[in-house]
Design brief:
The protein is mainly beta. The protein has one helix and 29 strands.
């Protein structure tokens, strides 16, 4: 009888320990060597509810080609980024429920459209994949559907206006995936004062993207100033976007105000409307220049990479964004970030290559115990780690 009680106690303890250690997300970190033939080692970590990271067995995975681009939980995609080869491929790999990247299932030859690609991404459903061509060959978006078996079907091509080389961005989708937006820099036709603008797209039932005629009503600027869009956009789970905007004075913005955060509502026809007023919109960072920006899945906490670290804000839907924290971090710079569904923000330091984990609530942000860690991806600190890529998949 005593043995049975001891056994039951041990079983309960084991089950409790397993529950406590259960992963809430898998975090993928890649050095992303921009080559169509070289492997890009991908290190995978399991993250617990406390934000503790444990490298999973078998990683770094070196069988993948191209640049890590996304996962929908059952498949993992990469895209080649090398203009020296004649064929560029969108690759699909199996991914297990424990985060392990398996063998390649299929690949799609992209060379009919472009000799170099800027990247690829899933929509929110995980059923469609979008590849952005380089500006040198059309600056187009290719649309694909991904079947349950891992095979790709081409759905359409959309050519975008050519922009500056540093403003080519994959689109940001609305929470319902009906609309997508990307920023395009001027092609120089409006010299001597080039501007940037947003491009609006609607998604057809097939998954293909098409340009839409849409209007953008920006925040109210100061008298004598004009509102200028930057490339930083992120979405909440419903019908809002967060954006970084600048208010410029003079014909060419000779004296501009620091970048500020704006919120937009996506109307049912795809129009963007902001009811924000400039003096109620928060400034970002000491330098006023943002690097990356991500809203958490709940849509109430906004993280902006600025200066040496990250600044957090409260996101309030259509209302003005409000201040939350100062800059967290004192060295290097944050090159890319991603949230899980358990309010953890994962951030890569582009100078040191280290991976930071922050736990955020409505009242405070703290760095998780054991953070940061250095992924074993052969990243040298001397020149920084500009090619690192970060993807996070939450566990349902």
């Amino acid at each position: 009888m005593r043995l049975s009680l001891v056994s039951a106690t041990l079983v309960a303890a084991v089950c409790t320990s397993a529950a406590v250690a259960q992963s809430v997300a898998y975090v993928y970190v890649a050095e992303n060597r921009p080559s169509a033939t070289a492997t890009s080692p991908i290190t995978v970590y399991a993250s617990t509810a406390a934000g503790k990271l444990t490298q999973i067995a078998g990683s770094p995975f070196k069988q993948t080609l191209g640049t890590m681009s996304g996962t929908n939980g059952s498949h993992f995609i990469t895209v080649d980024q090398n203009f020296t080869t004649t064929h560029q491929y969108l690759h699909v790999y199996k991914v297990a429920s424990n985060g392990v990247i398996g063998s390649q299932v299929s690949k799609y030859d992209l060379h009919n459209w472009c000799e170099m690609d800027q990247g690829a991404e899933f929509d929110h459903t995980g059923q469609f994949v979008y590849v952005l061509d380089a500006q040198s060959c059309g600056n187009a978006l290719q649309s694909f559907s991904l079947g349950s078996s891992g095979y790709l079907t081409f759905k359409g091509s959309l050519t975008l206006p050519n922009g500056g080389p540093f403003f080519q961005k994959l689109p940001v989708f609305s929470g319902n995936d009906k609309f997508a937006y990307t920023q395009i820099a001027s092609d120089g036709s409006d010299a001597p004062c080039p501007t940037a603008s947003l491009i609006g797209m609607g998604r057809e039932s097939s998954g293909a993207l098409e340009r839409i005629g849409f209007s953008q009503t920006g925040p109210t600027p100061p008298t004598g100033f004009a509102t200028s869009q930057t490339e930083l956009l992120t979405n909440d789970p419903t019908n809002h976007l967060a954006s970084v905007v600048e208010f410029q004075e003079g014909p060419c913005g000779e004296s501009g105000i620091q970048q500020r955060l704006a919120s937009y509502t996506i109307e049912t026809n795809g129009n963007l409307v902001s009811t924000n007023t400039w003096d109620k919109m928060p400034l970002i960072g000491a330098s006023g220049v943002g690097i990356d920006m991500k809203l958490n899945p709940a849509g109430n906490i906004l993280a902006v990479a600025v200066d040496t670290g990250i600044q957090f804000f409260h996101f309030n839907g259509a209302g003005e964004i409000t201040s939350f924290t100062g800059i967290i971090g004192t060295s290097g710079y944050i090159s890319t970030m991603a949230w899980d569904k358990n309010n953890h923000l994962y951030a890569l330091n582009g100078r040191s290559g280290k991976l930071h984990v922050y736990s955020a609530t409505a009242t405070k942000v703290v760095e998780a115990s054991g953070s940061p860690i250095l992924p074993p991806n052969n990243c040298t600190t001397a020149g920084g780690c500009p090619f690192q890529k970060l993807i996070v998949r939450s566990v349902p």
